[in-house]
Every structure is written in C-alpha cells, then in structure tokens.
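Structure in, sequence out. Go:
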C-alpha cells in the first residue's frame, strides 16, 4: 500500500460473510465466492454463526470445511466462524478443539446469546478476557449500542493482544447507535494506530465486498490506509499462513477450483 489515504481504494478481502448455513442468510458458498470475484476481491472469509446462535449450523458444518476447495472462481477462501461471546468472562460457544477446524475466528457479542447485565464494566471485562484467547483473530462489530464498553482502554488491549478490530458495514447500516459509536471507536484506533479490518457481514451475495458507509466514515476521519489490513489480501493471507499454516498456491487458478455446474 503505497499511499496512506483512502481515495479510490477498496477492500480486497471480505472476511465476515454468512451463507445459507446461517438460516437468516440467503446465498451459498459458491454464490458468495462468485460475487466476490465480480466485486474484485481476492480473498473471501466464510464465517457462519457459531453454535450458540439460534440460527447456527451444526458444529459438523465447521468440521467438514476440509471438503471445500482453497479457491472458487479465482477467489481464495478462508473457512472460518463468527463465534459468540456468551458471557462477561469471555467464554466462546466453541472450545479450542472446535475452533481448530476453522482458519479465521471472529468473536462477537449478540443479544440472543447472553443473559448478563450489559454494563460497560461487564462488557469490557468480557472483551479483556477474549484478548487472552489465542484462537481469536478479530473482534466483531464492537460499535453496537447494546454492548457498551470502555473504549480507549479496551481498544488498546485489543492492539496489545494482536486482535484486529472490525468496522462492520452491516452494523453501521442497521444497528441502532452503531454509526455514532463508530466515529469514536475508529478515531481512537487512529490515535493509537490500532489495526482494523473493514468487512461487510454480508448475508446475501449481492452485498459481498461493498462497504460504502464504512469507507466514507473512515475517509471522514482521515483514517490511515496502512491500518486497514484487508485493503491488501496478501496481508491477511500472510497472517493466516503464519498462524495456522495455511498454504496458498501461487495463484487461485492454480488451486483446486469448483467447476460451474450445469442446471438440470
């Protein structure tokens, strides 16, 4: 990334998406990957909900990731999960064994998965405990009003623990208070040079790779491009290779790809 402003740039990896395995989403893995190719992405993260969510797939969904190819239609795949933070102690709905089947792990709070009083102190405590979990790569949509936390100290904790902070297009569009909270969260990330990832949280193929609200917010903040890790797919691939030993071929076309199927 030669320049450090966001004029004319776009993400090259969308690392938070859902397929029909999450029952309130509407597209298959192949449909999502083909949409990613059409949008100009090089890497797609499939991150269906962990088993604590009401609409989650069975855990065997994640166990069976090995049958998926490394690339579809010229787009690399990262086979991951959006795991649920279940309490104020940072407990996830998947243990280390279950997460070992995944190549990319987002940890997120959802109201349907928790029963504790969501005070800033307790939410912050949960986030701090997540920092101790080595399997977690990303903190998902941390700007929703339903989960207030002590922004500055916790965001600094994420950085110290090597957790990427997500800016989530869907959350900014649909979640109450998220857009206003995001202005504060990512201003702090800019101040302390905390790396972030810009994702869609797409639940439909037509939304993959499209981040107009989040990108404009970051432009308004004059957010430095070098802190947005997924503007270059290679940075994510390097992280995944180093942490989990994932091998990417010289090009997606050199990997095993899914052939287009004729409908009958």
């Amino acid at each position: 990334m030669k320049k450090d402003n966001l004029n004319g740039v776009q993400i090259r990896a969308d690392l938070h998406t859902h397929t029909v395995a999450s029952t309130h989403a509407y597209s298959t893995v192949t449909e999502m990957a083909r949409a990613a190719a059409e949008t100009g992405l090089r890497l797609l993260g499939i991150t269906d909900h962990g088993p604590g969510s009401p609409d989650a797939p069975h855990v065997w969904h994640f166990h069976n990731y090995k049958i998926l190819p490394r690339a579809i239609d010229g787009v690399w795949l990262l086979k991951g999960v959006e795991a649920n933070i279940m309490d104020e102690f940072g407990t996830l709905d998947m243990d280390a064994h279950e997460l070992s089947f995944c190549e990319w792990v987002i940890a997120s709070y959802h109201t349907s998965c928790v029963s504790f009083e969501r005070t800033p102190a307790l939410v912050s405590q949960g986030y701090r405990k997540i920092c101790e979990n080595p399997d977690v790569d990303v903190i998902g949509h941390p700007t929703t009003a339903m989960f207030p936390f002590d922004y500055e100290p916790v965001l600094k904790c994420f950085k110290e623990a090597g957790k990427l902070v997500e800016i989530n297009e869907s959350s900014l569009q649909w979640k109450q208070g998220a857009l206003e909270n995001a202005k504060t969260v990512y201003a702090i990330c800019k101040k302390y040079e905390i790396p972030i990832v810009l994702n869609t949280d797409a639940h439909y193929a037509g939304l993959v790779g499209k981040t107009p609200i989040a990108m404009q917010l970051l432009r308004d903040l004059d957010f430095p491009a070098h802190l947005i890790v997924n503007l270059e797919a290679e940075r994510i691939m390097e992280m995944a290779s180093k942490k989990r030993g994932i091998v990417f071929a010289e090009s997606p076309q050199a990997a095993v790809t899914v052939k287009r199927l004729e409908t009958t």
